[in-house]
Write a structure and sequence with these properties.
Elements lengths: L2 H11 L6 E4 L6 H11 L3 E5 L7 H4 L1 E7 L2 E7 L2 H8 L4 E5 L7 H13 L1 E2 L2 E2 L4 E7 L13 H6 L2 E4 L4 H10 L4 H9 L39 H12 L5 H8 L1 H11 L8 H6 L10 H14 L5 H8 L4 H14 L7 H9 L12
Parallel strand pairs: 1-8, 1-9, 2-5, 5-8
Antiparallel strand pairs: 3-4, 6-7
Helix pairs in contact: 1-2, 7-8, 8-13, 9-10, 10-11, 13-15
Length: 358
């Protein structure tokens, strides 16, 4: 399921207090989706990290309690567990990287999710549980789940990368326009570039193979949505040094991106396109075309969009669709222009857009 599909699902399951486990590769945005849903529902959010916690974090601290009948042994809740017990407003508890936690910690979590109580004290009815984990093939130290814990979740939801949604996120979060254009040019680059055991980069396009660190150098990064966003922030700071960008998202991705960045010198001038949309040549090379589409989408506004659409009429449809889609995501007001309405009707078979969502 894509992030937007999972978000819609969680907005239904969280108020019903149905526990959900999100599964996917590192850096794909599992925690971000849970955080966004909690905010959209106006719920409080508690994030826990079972991989660095002990069973006592979910059972309470062993202690001697002195009462009228004399001393007794008990478990006293503290920290986030105490917040789960005493919550008085709707609250989402997000357990991140649960698959990396020790079996004893998973067993303690299992009791919370199944019985919604610990040592005779009930978890507040305001609390809903979400957990997230990487997959074993991601080589993220996931050893698996104890079977009873996995069965405690109402559903296990695989999360998939969606390029359109990531580009839309990148637009909202000021990612460099050239990075978004590069992602359009090489749609398998994010999560696609791998390292073989000897350290040689593989070409993108095989999404089924897990990322493998370089032999003898476990500090090599791969291009996940999260790490590529980090590369984007470096570019926004004016950093285009290959070694630095490779340290953000891996050598193969950084090398391809820097090469693509150089194509920006070859794209036609936007102002020439606005003045002569019927005459300015359309670039032949795919990389230059994608760079130009990103540039036009970035600069689109109601004043120049009619001229932009005239130029796009001469561009192969797969490129023009990418341009219009990104332009409207960046500038939602364009969806109300006559140029967009005419264009979307003519290209309805290849283009879909929810104007209300924008």
């Amino acid at each position: 399921m894509t992030p937007s599909q999972i978000r819609a699902l969680l907005e239904t399951l969280i108020p019903a207090r149905e526990p959900v486990l999100l599964v996917g590769p590192p850096g794909i945005g599992k925690s971000d989706v849970a955080t966004a849903v909690a905010a959209s529902l106006n719920h409080d959010l508690i994030i826990t990290h079972p991989v660095v916690e002990d069973p006592t974090d979910y059972k309470g601290m062993p202690a001697v309690v002195h009462g009228e009948g004399g001393p007794t042994a008990s478990f006293l809740p503290f920290g986030e567990l105490n917040r789960m017990l005493s919550a008085t407003v709707p609250t989402v508890v997000m357990m991140d990287d649960l698959g990396q936690a020790a079996p004893a910690v998973q067993a303690a979590v299992m009791q919370l999710i199944l019985a919604r109580q610990i040592n005779g004290r009930r978890i507040s009815d305001h609390v809903s549980f979400i957990a997230a984990t990487n997959r074993r093939e991601d080589r993220a130290a996931v050893t698996g789940f104890i079977a009873p814990l996995l069965d405690r979740f109402t559903c296990v939801v695989p999360m998939e990368f969606d390029l359109d949604e990531w580009v839309a996120w990148g637009i909202r979060n000021s990612m460099p326009v050239e990075l978004l254009a590069f992602a359009r040019l090489q749609p398998t680059a994010i999560l696609g570039y791998r390292q073989d055991p000897d350290g040689a980069p593989e070409s993108p396009g095989n999404d089924e193979r897990p990322a493998r660190p370089r032999a003898g150098n476990a500090m090599t990064k791969s291009p996940t949505p999260r790490s590529v966003a980090g590369l984007g922030r470096l570019v926004n700071l004016g950093i285009l040094d290959l070694n630095t960008l490779a340290g953000a998202a891996g050598e193969a991705f950084a090398t391809a991106f820097v090469a693509f960045h150089n194509t920006w010198r070859e794209i036609p001038d936007r102002n020439e396109i606005y003045l002569n949309p019927d005459l300015v040549p359309v670039p032949e090379r795919a990389d230059v075309r994608y760079a130009l589409m990103g540039s036009l989408a970035f600069a689109a506004n109601p004043g120049n969009f009619d001229q932009t659409i005239r130029y796009l009429a001469r561009v192969p449809v797969e490129f023009s669709v990418a341009c219009v889609k990104d332009a409207v995501a960046r500038h939602p007001e364009l969806a109300k222009t006559q140029a967009f309405i005419r264009w979307s009707i003519e290209h309805s078979a290849a283009f879909s857009f929810d104007a209300a969502a924008a």
